Amino acid sequence: MGRGPVALRRSGVALLVTAMVTVAADQASKAAVRAYLPPSHSIPLIPGVLDLNYVRNSGAAFGLLEGQRLFFILTALAVLAGIAFVWFRYKPDAWYVVPALGLVVGGALGNLADRVLVGRVTDFLYLHFWPVFNLADSAIVVGVTVLVFWLLFRHDDEDEEDPVPSGESGEA
User: Fold this and answer.
1) Residue 72's beta-bridge partner residues?
2) Exposed end of the chain (fewer CB within 10 Å): N or C?
3) Is it the case that residue 148 has pLDDT exceeding 60?
4) Does 137 participate in catalysis according to the annotation?
């Protein structure tokens, strides 16, 4: 906290670049899947572990709340507003928080773009022990995990400062 304008600007650029790279990778991978893989078709990448499996998902994770497009659009916008609040309120400066926020922003924007432009989310990564997902979902999960650890274990500047410099006892 307490960053100067140059550091804040540099962090803002890092957040935006992370978000843009995430959206670009997510949208490119989804476009490739839609172009080259028939729906519900599966291609084993690591047999018995990981497949490419094109699924058109109009719900959330695990297919929950199928068809609630407006709800998911509003939820994504609320998440983005929440990230803006965290950014301006806490001014995070830990080296791992800025890219984590960028991953969540990029993932939210990637799935939001699908819902707005295509009407549903394109999922295609299938781990045999987990439902089908995409790069945006992965970015959100990684980013949120890092942010949860940051929120649980961060210290305010006041907590980290020693009121009495070492070597001085404060006694006369």
Assistant:
1) none
2) C
3) yes
4) yes
Quick check: is 157 catalytic? no
pLDDT of residue 161: 41
Question: Which entry of 26, 93, 123, 156 is annotated as an active-site residue?
Answer: 123
Provide the 3-class DSSP secondary structure of residue 42: strand
Backbone φ and ψ for 133, nearest 5 degrees, come out as -145, -175
Q: Degrees (nearest 5) of the Cα angle 118, 121, 127?
A: 150
Output the pTM of the full model.
Answer: 0.82
- Encode burial over 39-57: b for 16+ CB neighbours within 10 A, e otherwise: eeeeeeeeeeeebbbbbeb
Structure confidence by residue, pLDDT tens digits, 33-79:
999 999 988 999 999 999 999 999 887 766 677 777 889 899 999 99
The residue from 26, 51, 114, 137 that is catalytic is: 137
**What is the rounded distance in angstroms from the CA atom of residue 125 to the CA atom of residue 135?**
8
Which helix (H) or strand (E) covers residue 45, if one does? Answer: strand 42-46
| 8-state DSSP, 135 | H
